[in-house]
Amino acid sequence: MSTSSFESLNFDEFSLENPTNRFAGRRSRLAYLSHDSTHFAEVEDLFNKGWRHGRKARPQIQGIFKILWPDSNLEPYLQHRKQVQTRVRSRNNAGNEKLLFHGTNRACLLGESSSNVLLCGLKECYLCSILRASFDVKKCGMKNAFKRFGHGIYTTACSSKADDYSCNLSEDACLRTMLVNRVVVGRPYKRYRNAPDLVKPPDGFDSVTGEIGWDLNHEETVCYTNDAVRPAYLIVYGHKPKGLPKPTFKKLMSTMFKTPLVS
């Protein structure tokens, strides 16, 4: 890695190498945010303002984790953002980077407590798979066969819409989870009608945004390259049932690996 690349990673907010992230421990990929921190307040505000389904009661955020990345995974994203930035003019001067939501399956108990930060190895746990290596366009459609704007990575500014795709596969999970992602939107191509055969945006554009209108009640943004998206925060939300015992270490291990543990 070149010196300039290393320096840019050092200053990136979500790099494991950034000195400001050392409090989380070099081996920790998830850093629990204090409820009185600035980042917690910003993400919470984004979540609350994005909850637009009037018939769905807005849940309470129980915790937010900052997602940290090793250099090898973060650099391709930063390079892609830089390339897009040279082609587009945007107010944030970063390739029109936005924080957008994504809901997916969770088969383990990741995030159920501030100390539960170990990624599981269950193949049906899409959440841990994304947190381990980020998004993969090739896996588009594994959960939902219908792809409104083709084969891409789907995100949205509407948190209540992302909640529709959040699913707990573990019976022991009490809370729900949602990813907040850094998305290089660049120059978006706006569509009001479905286009399920798309595999890339039209020439001259960097992403596709589905606009509210004919086929959509809530907007969504689709990127067609893996390096356009990186998870930034994990939101854990819902209402904790009172009086339930905390899962034991044995129970957590059994859930993660689906292996019965003898007494």
TrEMBL record:
InterPro entries: ARTD-AVP (IPR051712), Poly(ADP-ribose)pol_cat_dom (IPR012317). GO terms for molecular function: NAD+ poly-ADP-ribosyltransferase activity; NAD+-protein mono-ADP-ribosyltransferase activity. SUPFAM superfamilies: ADP-ribosylation. GO terms for cellular component: nucleus. Residues 38-212 form the PARP catalytic domain. Signal peptide: none annotated. PANTHER family: POLY [ADP-RIBOSE] POLYMERASE. This is ADP-ribosylation. It comes from Rhizopogon vinicolor AM-OR11-026.
